[in-house]
C-alpha cells in the first residue's frame, strides 16, 4: 500500500469521525441539551408569529437547520401548516424539506462517502452500483415508503446515487405525504381559528383523510407494477 493510499484512507477516516461527531452532537442538542426547551412547537411558533413578513424565510431556515440536526420533521411540518395554513404551509414545508435534504445529503457525501467506499466488498459494490444506476427510482420508492427522512438524507450521501437523482426522487417522493399532512393540519387550524366546528365534517377534512389513507397503498401499488414489468420483461 502506497503512502498516497494510506493518506487517502486516513483522511477518509477523519472525515467519517467528524460526521459521527456531528450527528452525535446534533442528537444531543435536540434531545438532551438545555437548548431543547427552545425547540418546541410553542417556542418556534412565537418566533415565527413575531417575525412578520420575514416569517416564511425564517421558517424555511428553521426547517433546513432542523432537518440537519435531526429535529422531528412532523413537528416542523405541523408547525408550518398551523402557522401558514394548508397551501402556503405546504409550499414552505416542501421548500425547507428539499433544501434540508440536499444539504444533509452533501454533508453525508463529503464526510462519509470515502470511508464507506473503502469498506465496500464485492457484494456491496454490486448493490452500490445498482443504486447509482437506479438512483431516482430507489429514492422515490423509499420516500413513498415513508422511510425515516433525516437518516435517509445522510445515508444516501454514503452511496453512489447521483445528487440530482436523489433530489428529483425526493422532490416527487415527499410531495404527496407533505401535501396531505399540511392540508389536514392546515384545515384543522382554519376550523380552530374560525370556530366553525361543523367544518370538521367538510369535504376538505374527508379529502385529506382519504388521501392520507390512500398514500399507504402507494408502495404496494409500486410493487405490483414492478412485478408486472418484470413478468413482461421475461
Question: What is this entry, summarized?
Answer:
InterPro entries: TMEM64 (IPR015414), VTT_dom (IPR032816). The chain is built from eleven helices and no strands. With 234 residues, the protein is mainly α.
What can you see in these coordinates?
This protein is mainly α. The protein contains 11 helices and no strands. The longest helix is centred in the middle third of the chain and has 47 residues, at 73-119.
Q: Which term fits the overall shape?
A: flat
> Approximately how much beta-strand content do the residues carry?
under 5%
Largest sheet: none
Helix content bin: over 70%
Domain VTT: 71-185
Family: Belongs to the TVP38/TMEM64 family.
Membrane topology: Multi-pass membrane protein
Protein name: TVP38/TMEM64 family membrane protein
List the helices and strands and how they pair.
Layout: H1 3-31, H2 41-49, H3 55-68, H4 73-119, H5 122-133, H6 135-144, H7 149-157, H8 163-173, H9 175-194, H10 203-215, H11 218-233
Helix pairs in contact: 1-4, 2-4, 3-4, 4-7, 4-8, 4-9, 6-8, 9-10
Protein name: TVP38/TMEM64 family membrane protein
Subcellular location: Cell membrane
Keywords: Cell membrane, Membrane, Transmembrane, Transmembrane helix
Amino acid at each position: 500500500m502506497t503512502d498516497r493510499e494510506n493518506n487517502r484512507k486516513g483522511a477518509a477516516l477523519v472525515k467519517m469521525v467528524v460526521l459521527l461527531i456531528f450527528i452525535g452532537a446534533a442528537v444531543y442538542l435536540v434531545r438532551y441539551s438545555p437548548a431543547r426547551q427552545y425547540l418546541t412547537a410553542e417556542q418556534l411558533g412565537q418566533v415565527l408569529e413575531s417575525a412578520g413578513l420575514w416569517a416564511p424565510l425564517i421558517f424555511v431556515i428553521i426547517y433546513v437547520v432542523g432537518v440537519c440536526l435531526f429535529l422531528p420533521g412532523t413537528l416542523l411540518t405541523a408547525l408550518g401548516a398551523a402557522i401558514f395554513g394548508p397551501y402556503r404551509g405546504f409550499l414552505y414545508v416542501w421548500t425547507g424539506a428539499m433544501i434540508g435534504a440536499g444539504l444533509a445529503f452533501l454533508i453525508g457525501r463529503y464526510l462519509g462517502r470515502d470511508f464507506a467506499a473503502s469498506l465496500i466488498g464485492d457484494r456491496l459494490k454490486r448493490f452500490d452500483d445498482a443504486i447509482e444506476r437506479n438512483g431516482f427510482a430507489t429514492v422515490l420508492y423509499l420516500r413513498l415508503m415513508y422511510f425515516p427522512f433525516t437518516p435517509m438524507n445522510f445515508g444516501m450521501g454514503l452511496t453512489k446515487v447521483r445528487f440530482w437523482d436523489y433530489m428529483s426522487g425526493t422532490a416527487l417522493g415527499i410531495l404527496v405525504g407533505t401535501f396531505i399532512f399540511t392540508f389536514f393540519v392546515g384545515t384543522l387550524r382554519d376550523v380552530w381559528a374560525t370556530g366553525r366546528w361543523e367544518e370538521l365534517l367538510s369535504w376538505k377534512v374527508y379529502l385529506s383523510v382519504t388521501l392520507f389513507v390512500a398514500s399507504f397503498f402507494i408502495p404496494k401499488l409500486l410493487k405490483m407494477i414492478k412485478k408486472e414489468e418484470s413478468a413482461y420483461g421475461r
